[in-house]
Specification:
- By secondary structure, the protein is mostly helical.
- The protein has one domain (3-156).
- Helices cover 79% and strands 4% of the residues.
- It contains 5 helices and 2 strands, in the order H-H-H-E-E-H-H.
- It has a two-stranded antiparallel sheet.
- Strand 1 (93-95) and strand 2 (100-102) form a beta hairpin.
- The longest helix is centred in the last third of the chain and has 32 residues, at 125-156.
């Protein structure tokens, strides 16, 4: 495999890990179950797996067997989502006595981190940065606004 391609993949994994880590840092600071390192690993792993799919397609083409072995990169994305679903399901906790479900936002953030990794692997850097900022706004800013509104309603009753 071309050394330049390997370096590009490694750089994409680093970028995906850093962007996903930003999402995880917000979760970590809120003491949620899947934090900084988990999000970094998920984002980096998604970028790695999707990049390896590209490497496989190139490899099959070079061997001249691309007509025999059909590749479908979409299946890699599907596999990433299924794998992340297991991680997300492991973070969700139901508290029976309160009929509450906890950590859904964290599970969704882990899925979003995988999406960031996929976007970076596809070299969609502006999109990757934009959605990282979006999830930070959703998790941090909207959480603050929701708490302020909830607190205001409690005092009005």
């Amino acid at each position: 495999m071309d050394l330049l391609l390997q370096l590009q993949i490694a750089l994409n994994i680093v970028i995906a890990s850093i962007l996903s880590g930003m999402v995880g840092l917000e979760r970590e600071l809120k003491k949620k179950p899947a934090g900084f390192r988990t999000h970094m690993i998920v984002g980096g792993a998604a970028a790695l797996l999707l990049s390896l799919g590209e490497v496989l397609v190139i490899h099959f083409n070079e061997l001249g067997i691309s007509k025999i072995i059909q590749t479908d990169p979409i299946r890699i994305i599907e596999a990433i989502i299924v794998g992340i679903s297991f991680i997300g399901a492991g973070t969700i906790l139901q508290v029976r006595r309160d009929d509450k479900v906890l950590y859904l936002t964290t599970a969704a953030s882990v899925l979003f981190s995988a999406g960031i990794g996929i976007a970076v692997a596809l070299e969609q850097y502006i999109l990757s940065i934009a959605v990282t900022l979006l999830i930070l706004i959703i998790n941090y800013a909207l959480s603050k606004i929701f708490k302020m509104l909830s607190h205001k309603e409690e005092h009005e009753d």
